[in-house]
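Chain A, query sequence.
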Amino acid sequence: MEYKGRKVLVTGADGFIGSHLTEKLVQRGAKVTALCLYNSFDHHGWLDDLPEEARGKLTLARGDIRDSGFVRRLAQGQEIIFHLAALIAIPYSYAAAQSYAETNVLGTLNVLEAARESGAMRVVHTSTSEVYGTALTMPISESHPLQGQSPYSASKIGADMMAEAFARSFELPVAILRPFNTFGPRQSERAIIPTIIRQALDPSCNAIQTGDTSPLRDFTFVEDTAEAFLALGIAPNIQYGRPYNAGSGKAVSVKDIIELVLQATKCQRPVVQDPKRMRPAGSEVRALLADSRRLNEDTGWRPRIDLREGLERTIAWWRERLAIGLVRRETGYMT
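Chain A, predicted structure.
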């Protein structure tokens, strides 16, 4: 099965990963309906940054996945649904846990119900490596225990279980993709890599402010993550209701990431730990390292862009953004 001519719905299309996935779907000839969170500013998030040729081929929709009636209407006639819409900012989840449950769990339920009612041929639900919490064994396979170490991760565990339940209870063809830390152009400063890059390039910054620099993370360039979605969306022999990890299989410390960025940007500013950027002690995920063999075996996916190349491309994007004064602040919504 190919994407050309297929009717595809992407929720969270206005976000970081969602915009890259949407752009690739258009390039592959899909008829894409892109759902963006409603706002009164006539914005479509990062979709506004797509080339006009690509944007002109999209059907843009504004709404909220918490509105079940709206989601049901939107899903009618869609063959493949990529569900990426979510509240994702971990720090905000400590302050507004209920909103995470409403958006991530109930919103996912609405998408699953709509897909079931409309007869969609496949749903790809977005999970996160945060559901594993601090690694008990590494590399982390899909059988690793789930640990809700933040309200955000707990809400995503709930959403994943709902997807599994719909596959088991109603035979809904829903696949679960569990990306590890994704980075690249269009990512906001809620994440560590754009935070460091912006501070290294911004002449108004006198120091690089960070939180805990000791955790280990598995970083995947956003184009590779988008390709993982595309692979899982059409692969013929996948397991529904079961999660698939998508990561590089290489762990690097936040400290090492900072050093790589400073070298690449030729920045000599001091690195200062900011207590406000620290997670609560019991909530910090100490280590993440992906075992993505299942995804590779069932779809053929593997990452193609290494960390250094990805950092260079991300730094180049930030240089351009800062040069024209366009730095988008995090709203906390979409991935």
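The longest strand covers residues 31-37. The mean pLDDT is 93.
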